Amino acid sequence: MKPVIICGGIGTKMWPLSCWKMPKQFLPLINGKSLFQLNWEALRLKFKPNEIYLQTNKEQAVIANNQISEIIDENIFIEPEMKNQGPATGFAAAMLYRQFPDEPFMLVQADVLRQPTEKFLEMIDQFDNLIRQKGKIVTGGMKPKEAVMGVDYLKINKTTRQMEEWLGRGEKEQIESYLTTGDVLIHTNHYAWTPRLMLDLFKRRKPAWYQPLVNIINGGNIAVEYAKMPSGPIEEITREELLNGYIIELPFDWVDFGTWESVADYLVRNGLWQKDSNILEIEGQNNFIKTPSGKKVALIGLNDLVVIDNGEALLITTKNNSGKVSEAAAYFNST
Predict the structure, then answer these.
(1) Domain 2-256 CATH superfamily
(2) In which residue ranges of the chain is pLDDT below 50?
(3) CA 206 to chain CA centroid, nearest Å
């Protein structure tokens, strides 16, 4: 198995700290370490540096190298431009195909935590064995406690572990009807397959992606060929192909740092959050405040707020509205 860490996104829901120059996966959120560093350390318990790959862009490759000195330069796949996960994943497959056309590889998102680590590493072995035995695409899912919108769901056959139905983000009534039966999972990605298998699926489902990737494999100019691929999510292929694939329920906790609310919840719940002595709360509670060191802040009669100040921009929102922060990021990034 070849793990490929995916870390090319920006994480606009965690503006203003997360930005193009320092996306959320590289922010020192947990005990002074970034999510990227923690994921690298987890994989290093099983893999050597030359066995771990990185899919990112030129700017973030620099950040990654600054945070992890043992990254192998030849193992970094630099996307020439942002094209969404479909072309990006295909690019990783094309680069791996040159050396390991039939070796399974797994996409590892850099902006989440998987705990305990040993269970994640055991799942990697499970994926590897399943792909080698069945020759099919595999992905992971998490049992939901309630119908949370904004994510995809997979209805599975619990006996065969195969997907029976892909449920999109807006199909709330149908999702709720499956919750009681226990045969629906939140899709957490963790896509795994071989480069040859993936390119075969691209050939069948997305020829506009397939041919430029073949040209890259055959020595074509990466920037020229990559530009030919239309932007799009990998789900344009997987939502159909997973009907013939396998779904593994995660044997570990999957912590998604998608918003400031989720960051605050994790840090407080795990005793990792300590309020700065320069922050004063009067008749208020459950506020999450990050400001430049030494800056004095007072909140009076306010509860459940997120206050983020990076010295150049200030965010103030209620925790339950932190999912809308990307709208503010989009506005200020366009001005």
Answers:
(1) Spore Coat Polysaccharide Biosynthesis Protein SpsA; Chain A (3.90.550.10)
(2) none
(3) 23
